[in-house]
Design brief:
By secondary structure, this protein is mainly α. It is built from 3 helices and no strands.
Length: 136
């Protein structure tokens, strides 16, 4: 029923446009154009009946495509998660290596300080000995 209502309104609007046409010389062209448009309005629903199979095929293909995309995204998510885990493990290893190197550097600095202190102490002791022997 809605279909016939649309066509009736279209025909009324077509007659209105034809009535306000600029002259009679355009009337036959307007009638021809409106006639083609009315035929197209009738043909559209009739042509859509044969497309049910295509629409079903489209829906099936759409569902298949959606499933494949979801699976692909899930695979990408899993790979991304594994990649992030590998990166985190590598960062932890590098952090441990850096901490080890830092502690070795601190130990070396401490040993150097102790060696410097021992050399300094030896120099001070020798300086004191020189002074004591010089007074006698």
């Amino acid at each position: 029923m809605d279909f016939f209502k649309q066509i009736s309104i279209f025909l009324l609007l077509g007659q209105t446009i034809q009535h306000f046409a600029p002259g009679e010389k355009y009337e036959k062209y307007i009638k021809m154009l409106l006639g083609f448009m009315v035929v197209a309005q009738f043909a559209a629903p009739l042509l859509s009946f044969g497309n049910k199979e295509r629409m079903e095929e489209y829906e099936n293909n759409k569902e298949t495509f959606t499933k494949k995309m979801e699976e692909a995204l899930q695979t990408v998510d899993e790979k991304w998660f594994l990649y992030n885990e590998q990166i985190e493990e590598q960062i932890e290893k590098e952090l441990e290596n850096a901490q080890t190197a830092l502690s070795e550097q601190r130990e070396l600095e401490e040993e150097t300080k102790q060696a410097d202190a021992a050399v300094k102490k030896k120099i001070e002791v020798e300086a004191v000995k020189v002074e004591v022997t010089a007074h006698e």
